Every structure is written in structure tokens, then in C-alpha cells.
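Worked example 2:
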Amino acid sequence: MRRLTGFDPGRDAVKTLTTIITYAMCINVFFYLLEVFTAFYSGIPGHQHPLVFLFAGHEGHVSWVTNWMWAAVVMAAASLIILIPPQWRTGPLLPLALVMLVAASWIDKGLGLLIGGFTPNMFETVTEYAPTGREIIVALGVYAVGALVLSLASIASKNLIPGAIIPVGIVTSLVGVPFFLSIILRHRGQV
């Protein structure tokens, strides 16, 4: 951050944040392991099948998401191996550990919950799904619009009142709340 922006948060702030991130990831992994234990200990097929599908396939169906889930496991473990020893939290491997941590969490919570939550379906069948190019472009467009809105809100938060910085969340809510209220009021009788 210092090289790219010139902002120096200080060693104490970085140390505190990395400690919080390390504890949060340990808790995340612990709860995930509890979920795995519960699924297999309970013996309920509806709990077991999504996990089996995500990591090994289900009844001959091996999905493209299987490799991503194993990549998430490897990245989560590697990030924790780097982050748990306190002396490594401030070293040159910290950015790599944080990138792996974010990627592992994104894969686990995004693909794992979405694909695993609906596969196999309630009829115990597997419907293969992979996003089309059009769906990927729409998703990237949504991320781009979100990044643009946050960037504009950040600029506005620094320039609305000279000498004061308004939190970005307040600026986005000043725009977002009226926007969503107008949508709700416009479609009130249709829902």
C-alpha cells in the first residue's frame, strides 16, 4: 500500500488487522469443518450429497467446480500457514497470503454455496451448469458498476464538505436509499 498510494498505515495498524484477519479465517475454517462433520455424522443424504458433489462429484458427475473447491482448500490452508506464525504476518508473504485468503473465501462462499446448495436437487439428480459468456459479462458489468459507484462515492465523500471526510457508506446510502425506494414505490402493486 505504501508503494502504490503513498499512505503509510503504520506497523501497529497492519499488525492488528492481520491478527484480526487471521482469527477470522481460523473461525471460518473451524465452522466449515463443523459443517463437514455435521453432514457426515448425521448420515442425512441431503446434507452429505452437496459436499460430496463439490469435492468428488456425485454418482459419476464430476463438475468443473470440484477443482475450484480443492483450490480453495489449498489456498485457505496456505494462507493460514503464512498468517498463523506472528513473525510472518508482517513479512513479504503477507500480500500473497491475503490474496489467497480472499480467493479461497470467495470460491468457498460463492461457488460452494451457490452450486453446492442446489446440487444435487431435491429429486436427487444433477443438472450440470456452467455460466455462459453472456452471464459472465453481465456479472463483470455488475462488479464494474459497483466499483464505479463506490469510486464516485469516495470522491464525493472527500469533496462534499471542504476539510471534512464523510464516510463512503453515508454517501452511498444517500444515493441508494432514494433509488431503491423509488423502485419499490413504482412497482408497489406488481409484487
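The helical segments are 2-5, 11-42, 45-56, 65-83, 94-118, 133-159, 168-186. The chain has seven helices and no strands.
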